[in-house]
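Run log // design_07
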């Protein structure tokens, strides 16, 4: 990694574009710094600028840089933040920063900057040139020296080289929640489902009493040919936006059910169910067909449902879940304790288990109040004949505590992260196994 810490002799202003140089930009950002502030920055790089210079000549390259600098400056001059700057920090690389600024706002601005830099540029011979910008976004942590943020951005930009389809990326690898690339993902998704880019990982679940393997939760991923692995939350947000949620869920169910049918008995499979799935008229028939097609005994399948999936119409959801229970599948209320818990759900829904959110498990080994809450929930669940699964178990102390308090099963990085299907099958083949719940 090349740390872009500039020698102190660099001029304050870049001679070609008139923008600040790197030294001046970093000093300015340091002046903005205040505890709790919200400084965002980005590096915009013209991809393959050296090749552009070779192909069109350095005069054309210089002309294009000046044009990009003008466009970025003009856009930032109209931006609503109190403080903002544009600097040139390398050949075809610009640093843009502003404060105060929220994450979403910064993404929107970055999207517009990418659009401006990628727009047509008239060349000296009456032709039109196009540059391909790539952007990495970041936020200055409290007390972080600005040069370190620049280092993080530079590092991320270098590693984004293999991802040409992604114009925007956060330095920590996150994809933007809004903006251009999100729209592209929405457009890509239907084809991705067809092309088999959706994959399912399996996170092992264990018996709290004796550590035996009880099954796995299926967790979806998108193996995007340009962007690499995209996580479940982004995937489902994109699917929700583009109306492909039920098609996606259907594909995931098939991808998960088939291998699960081949796991050693009595290992179980947990599938996540969305509000859109529950609302679909053919959900039940489709699931029944998928279970039958795979040949998995319905008792080995648990559907994980979140409260958000149920709130729209509780009576309708209860009827739908009743039919599912009649199929013989188990039902668990997922993310229990993460939001507002409506205890009525526990009374009216034909549930078999509760899945404690990670936030309920996090502090139990240290904080007596967290432990008291867990104890209360387990007591209530026991009285209602519900089995409790603890999620997000990361330490041995947490595992000991949830086992002592009566949770039936657990999953978390302490046991294993989500695994590829084959890796899970290997684990299952060499493990002692136990029934779910
Ligand atoms: P969830 O159902 O609560 O899934 C558990 C999430 O916690 C998973 O993230 C898992 O990788 C992560 N996790 C597991 N153990 C640990 C741990 O010890 N520590 C920490 N910090 N995290 C842990 P993932 O796979 O990114 O899924 C996020 C959410 O996306 C899921 O939350 C679920 O709501 C949704 N999702 C994932 N796959 C599917 C799917 O196939 N269908 C539907 N409808 N939703 C899905
Ligand atoms: Ca889940
Ligand atoms: Ca959960």
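design_07 sequence
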């Amino acid at each position: 990694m090349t740390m872009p810490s500039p020698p102190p002799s660099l001029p304050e202003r870049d001679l070609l574009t008139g923008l600040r140089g790197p030294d001046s930009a970093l000093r300015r950002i340091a002046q903005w710094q205040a505890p709790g502030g919200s400084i965002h920055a980005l590096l915009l790089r013209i991809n393959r600028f050296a090749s552009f210079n070779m192909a069109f000549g350095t005069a054309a390259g210089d002309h294009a840089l000046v044009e990009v600098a003008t466009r970025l400056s003009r856009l930032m001059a109209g931006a609503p933040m109190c403080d903002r700057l544009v600097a040139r920090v390398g050949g075809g690389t610009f640093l843009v920063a502003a404060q105060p600024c929220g994450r979403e706002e910064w993404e929107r601005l970055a999207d517009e900057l990418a659009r401006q830099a990628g727009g047509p540029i008239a060349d000296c011979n009456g032709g039109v040139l196009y540059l391909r910008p790539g952007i990495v976004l970041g936020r200055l942590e409290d007390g972080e020296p600005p040069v370190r943020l620049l280092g993080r951005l530079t590092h991320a930009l270098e590693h984004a080289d293999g991802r040409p389809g992604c114009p925007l990326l956060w330095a920590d690898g996150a994809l933007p929640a809004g903006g251009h690339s999100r729209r592209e993902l929405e457009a890509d998704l239907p084809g991705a489902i067809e092309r088999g880019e959706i994959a399912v990982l399996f996170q092992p679940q264990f018996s709290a009493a004796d550590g035996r393997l009880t099954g796995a939760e299926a967790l979806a991923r998108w193996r995007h040919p340009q962007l690499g692995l995209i996580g479940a939350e982004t995937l489902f947000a994109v699917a929700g936006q583009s109306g492909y949620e039920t098609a996606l869920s259907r594909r995931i169910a098939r991808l998960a059910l088939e291998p699960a049918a081949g796991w050693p008995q009595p290992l179980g499979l947990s599938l996540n169910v969305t509000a859109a799935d529950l609302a679909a008229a053919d959900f039940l028939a489709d699931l029944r067909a998928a279970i039958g097609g795979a040949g998995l005994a319905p008792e080995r399948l648990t559907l994980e449902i979140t409260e958000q999936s149920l709130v729209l119409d509780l009576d309708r959801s209860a009827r739908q879940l009743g039919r599912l229970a009649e199929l013989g599948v188990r039902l668990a209320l997922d993310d229990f304790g993460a939001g507002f818990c409506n205890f009525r759900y526990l009374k009216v829904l034909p549930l078999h288990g509760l899945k404690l959110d990670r936030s309920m498990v996090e502090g139990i080994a240290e904080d007596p109040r967290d432990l008291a809450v867990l104890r209360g929930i387990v007591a209530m669940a026991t009285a209602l004949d519900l089995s409790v699964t603890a999620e997000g178990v990361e330490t041995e102390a947490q595992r000991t505590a949830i086992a002592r308090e009566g949770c039936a099963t657990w999953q978390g990085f302490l046991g294993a992260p989500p695994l590829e299907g084959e890796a899970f099958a290997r684990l299952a083949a060499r493990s002692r196994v136990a029934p779910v719940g």
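The chain is about 45% helix and 20% strand.
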